[in-house]
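Please decode residue identities from the backbone states below.
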């Protein structure tokens, strides 16, 4: 499924880098019922050292128990895109509830706001075949071209999984690249596909 969420009234949902980091943590580590205390400890680690420093045993438990498999993602100032495979009935709903509710509480507390952060329920579009899956992945990974300073450098955008497809996968088993990369001889081949796909984001 291709999942899309937008800020209420098209407002920005990520106001600074720490907001992106907090959402990224949820995106990766809330794929299962496992709970986390003091998430700020992990996000602070990422800000300082570029890694969340979650114990390998915990990551292994998440992979065994997860509701969904995260395939790719792109976080933009006022919206996000991701693709997931649902591992169990109702898995997407459970995952998104954890992700969005947790981030809204964090955001409203940090920025001293109240009310809805997101514009209604997220949208879920069924990806029916492998060809469409690769097209959707290109569409998602090209999203950062909407930001002038990242246009032409989408593969280096820090809040996207594109770099994990063409370089080293930072997230290991928490990001399932094989569903897409198995159709390409290399990350370079995928990079070329994305650049030539014609998949253009809509603002």
């Amino acid at each position: 499924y291709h999942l899309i969420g937008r800020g209420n009234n098209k407002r920005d949902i990520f106001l600074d880098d720490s907001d992106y980091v907090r959402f990224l943590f949820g995106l990766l580590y809330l794929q299962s019922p496992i709970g986390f205390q003091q998430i700020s400890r992990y996000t602070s680690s990422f800000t300082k050292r570029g890694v969340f420093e979650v114990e390998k045993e915990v990551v292994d438990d998440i992979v065994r128990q997860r509701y969904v498999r995260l395939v790719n993602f792109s976080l933009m100032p006022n919206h996000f895109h991701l693709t997931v495979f649902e591992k169990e009935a109702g898995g997407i709903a459970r995952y998104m509830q954890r992700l969005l509710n947790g981030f809204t509480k964090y955001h409203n507390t940090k920025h001293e706001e109240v009310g809805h952060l997101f514009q209604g329920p997220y949208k879920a579009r069924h990806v029916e075949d492998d060809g469409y899956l690769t097209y959707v992945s290109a569409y998602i990974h090209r999203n950062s071209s909407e930001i002038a300073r990242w246009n032409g450098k989408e593969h280096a955008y820090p809040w996207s999984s594109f770099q994990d497809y063409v370089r080293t996968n930072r997230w290991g088993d928490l990001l399932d690249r094989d569903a897409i990369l198995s159709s390409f001889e290399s990350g370079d081949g995928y990079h070329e596909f994305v650049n030539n796909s014609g998949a253009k984001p809509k603002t």
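Observation: The CA atoms of residues 10 and 78 lie 6 Å apart.
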